[in-house]
Amino acid sequence: MATDEEFVFDPKIVKNDIESVRKKFEGLMYLDPRCDPAFKALLDSEDSLVNFLNGIMHLEGDDAIQSLTYKIQQEENFRLPEPYSVKFDISAHTKAGKRIDVEMQQVKLKEYISRMMIYNAILLLRSKSDYNKEIGFQNLPDAEKEKYRYKLPEIYSIWIMDHSVDFMGKGIYRDEVALYNKSNIGKDGCLPISSKNKYIVIDLAKFDKKFEELESDEDRWLYILKNAGSSRSSIKFGNPAIEDALRRIECGTASEELLIRQANMTDYINVCRAAVAESYDEGYEKGLEKGLEKVALDMLADNEPIEKIVKYSHLPMEKVLELKEKQAAFSAK
Fold first, then answer.
1. What are 222-270's pLDDT values in tens digits?
2. Phi and psi of 242, rounded to 5°?
3. Under 8 Å between Cβ of 29 and 231
4. Which of 93, 228, 308, 310 is most buried, by CB atoms within 10 Å?
């Protein structure tokens, strides 16, 4: 089964035979569940996914999920008007009617917030379409159609980020995002204007609880996501759903297919991260240089001495002289 990231690169480019793969994971107890193949294997059972979602969504008692159906790597295709598709990591539908998308994101993309919004929009549209089919909307009398035309099920977009999330405050590793009206923000009792559409965002970079500090199932799952890939011994919580999930990503018993896909994806993610870091550094340097050039140009316009411009702009003498020539040529036009 191909995973989301495997649709954007050619696995044949990465040569990982089973012998070399086993050496890569030698000494490790588990595959890293932050990486796409292991993440999906970890949650690939109803019991484990129910336990995970109840923990992450803070559902207890009568509100807790009892059963669900789910798909790993759920592809959705729409026309906008041109064809457009996304692939949900894990798509779930609870017995109570909740629709849930769970995404694990390792690499920090420049437009990651836009991606979250697009996935959420498609989840909402798909959920509405499925709901209409369930109630037989097309066969309802006209009066009933008006009653259900805009009725939505509850939908949840869960994003687990293995990187800093810019809009979340210092020390906050879990946040909920919903639709609020501006006039009530900051006031006591401020509530979303709708409870039908929620984001739950996890910033794993900020989750730093130690094993002995874990209190809830949410804590335990986040601890596993962040630490299982570097563990050299078994992680035990006495929770059958969690321990069953961990068995599926044990390095010693994982299938050769899963091991190879995990190794390929790990190599790919490392290349992506290096490229993103290089791009960021290059962009930062260009931005910094552009700012320094503005300082130099402003000082040149004020006829400041070249030596002083070099000192305060931190640009080389040659660059300042080049800017002076360009400025003189522009002024002569």
1. 999 999 999 999 999 999 999 999 999 999 999 999 999 998 888 877 7
2. -75, -45
3. yes
4. 228
pTM of the model: 0.78
Strands 99-105 and 83-94: antiparallel
Q: How far apart are CA 253 and CA 248, in angstroms?
A: 8
Residue 40 dihedral angles phi and psi, to the nearest 5°: -70, -35
In this structure, are residues 55 and 221 in contact, taking their beta carbons and an 8 Å threshold?
A: yes
Question: Which residues, 6 or more positions from 200, have their beta carbon under 8 angstroms from its beta carbon?
Answer: 56, 57, 156, 157, 158, 159, 174, 175, 176, 177
The encoded tokens of residue 212 equal 């002995």
Taking only the tens place, the pLDDT of each residue in 61-110 is 999 999 999 999 888 887 777 888 889 999 999 998 999 999 999 888 87
Contacts of 328 (CB under 8 A, 6+ apart): none
Question: Token digits for 80?
Answer: 């906008």
Contact 48, 65 (CB under 8 A): no
> CA-to-CA distance for 102 and 77, rounded, in angstroms?
18
Task: Provide the 10 A C-beta neighbour count for residue 283.
Answer: 11
Contact between 266 and 39 under an 8 Å Cβ cutoff? The reply is: no
> What tokens appear for 160 in the block?
């687990």
| E-state strands within the chain | 68-79, 83-94, 99-105, 155-161, 174-177, 197-203
DSSP state of 169: P
Query: How many Å apart are CA 211 and CA 120, to the nearest integer?
Result: 33
What gap in Å lies between CA 280 and CA 295, rounded to an integer? 23
Identify whether the C-beta of residue 106 lies closer than 8 Å to the C-beta of residue 35. Answer: yes
Q: Which amino acid is at 166?
A: D
Please, which residues bridge with residue 88 across strands? 74
